[in-house]
Design goal:
This protein is mostly helical and 396 residues long. It has one domain. It has a two-stranded parallel sheet with strand order 1-2. A two-stranded antiparallel ribbon has the order 3-4. Strand 3 and strand 4 form a beta hairpin. The longest helix is centred in the middle third of the chain and has 22 residues. The two termini are 20 Å apart. 45% of the residues are buried.
Length: 396
């Protein structure tokens, strides 16, 4: 694999990220950008690094990794300090906005404490990507676009050279494991909606990279303790959930959804029962990610672009890519995260959040635009069908 792209802080200009994707034309331009090349690079890099590795919790030998993990753990403590508001609420608990406000207000300071002073110029861009890694305080949802933003943060620190040459799959798993623990806590505590879910025909209501990395952990490993079909066995899934990201994600489904796994997670069940090796699962999930996340406007429109880390630049020519903007779309833009943009102040309640209802996750999704429940698709999307066939047919 090629060397990690390097971003020299002293020679690089950093800017607050801005929205550049307003329609399908913008998505097409994105496919030629430096940003997508870097995102794909780090997705593949970390997937390769975690191969035949298991999650090991606790401090590692790299100080900045421990510091970053500590930052995520502090955000988890902040959830405990910001309990859900009392009483039932169907579509997200408003206390989540209070959590976001506290988090965003202290974000720059957290980076300043973590990073050496010479890296502080990059904080405006780091703020945006980390700030958008935990769901939307506006829509009270979480999905694959937020997960992508976290990948961007980890890759950004890699480009800045902060992970050091000792950075390995062990540290990658430590970081992502801590992140997913926090996100699952946010989802359950504040009953966050799935962002852009495909319903029962999607891979997962919230995650995709977790499955890519988790399947890579066991790819081409003759000593892998499970085969794909074993994920239908909840006991086995729970046994390895602490050491494998794929099992973690499946375990979360068993936790928050009721009913047969084959019905509430038909895509994952289909993969488990028709794809026989982890290497095929992994390669198919990568292809699916390129199509269903990196090439889909509803997801990628929320990924914004700075000047240093993930620029809106043509990867071949080095020139700025065109921006196709229209008045209607511009009026719907979301304000980027900023410590000067405070979320509404929400009074704190004293009761913990309730578990996510089965109907919310399995029977449909809430549309913020229409304000009503949209039924799940009755058939899988064409691209998902192609990916399933690809998993079955690819060689190990």
């Amino acid at each position: 694999m090629e060397a990690v792209p390097q971003v020299n802080v002293s020679r690089t200009k950093f800017e607050n990220p801005v929205k550049c994707i307003f329609d399908s034309q913008g998505v097409q331009e994105f496919q030629h950008s430096v940003a997508i090349e870097r995102l794909k690079y780090f997705l593949l890099r970390y997937a390769q690094m975690v191969n035949r590795q298991r999650i090991e919790r606790g401090p590692c030998g790299i100080e900045v990794v421990n510091g970053f993990v500590g930052l995520l753990q502090r955000l988890s403590q902040l959830v405990d300090e910001t309990p859900a508001l009392p009483g039932p609420r169907r579509f997200g608990n408003l206390a989540c906005r209070d959590w976001h406000h506290k988090f965003e207000s202290s974000l720059s300071q957290l980076w300043q404490e973590l990073l050496p002073k010479e890296y502080h110029e990059a904080i405006p861009e780091l703020n945006y990507y980390l700030g958008n890694s935990f769901g939307s305080s506006t829509r009270l949802d979480y999905g694959t676009g937020h997960e992508l933003s976290f990948l961007a943060v980890v890759g950004a620190l890699d480009m800045l050279g902060l992970w050091t040459s000792e950075f390995s799959g062990k540290e990658v798993l430590l970081i992502f494991d801590t992140y997913y623990q926090l996100v699952r806590k946010l989802i359950i505590t504040y009953t966050l909606e799935p962002a852009g879910s495909h319903g029962v025909w999607g891979l997962d209501d919230h995650f995709h990279i977790a499955y890519i990395h988790g399947s890579s952990q066991w790819s081409n490993d003759p000593n892998a303790p499970m085969v794909p079909r074993d994920i239908t066995n909840r006991t086995m899934v729970e046994k390895f959930a602490d050491t494998n990201l794929y099992c973690q994600a499946i375990s979360f489904i068993y936790q928050v959804k009721s009913g047969p796994f084959a019905e509430n997670s038909s895509m994952l069940y289909d993969i488990a029962t028709t794809v026989h090796t982890w290497s095929k699962v992994h390669s198919g999930l990568l292809k699916m990610y390129y199509i269903e996340v990196l090439s889909k406007f509803p997801v990628i429109q929320h990924f914004w672009f700075g000047a240093g880390l993930y620029p809106w630049i043509n990867a071949k020519t080095g020139q700025k890519l065109p921006i196709y903007e229209n008045i209607e779309t511009k009026s719907e833009m979301f304000t980027p995260i900023s410590i000067t943009t405070a979320a509404p102040t929400i009074s704190m309640g004293h009761q913990p959040g309730q578990s996510i209802p089965h109907t919310k996750l399995a029977h449909g999704r809430y549309s913020p635009v229409r304000g009503l429940m949209a039924p799940p698709s009755t058939v899988p999307t064409n691209s998902y069908s192609k990916m399933r066939n690809s998993m079955r047919n690819d060689r190990p």
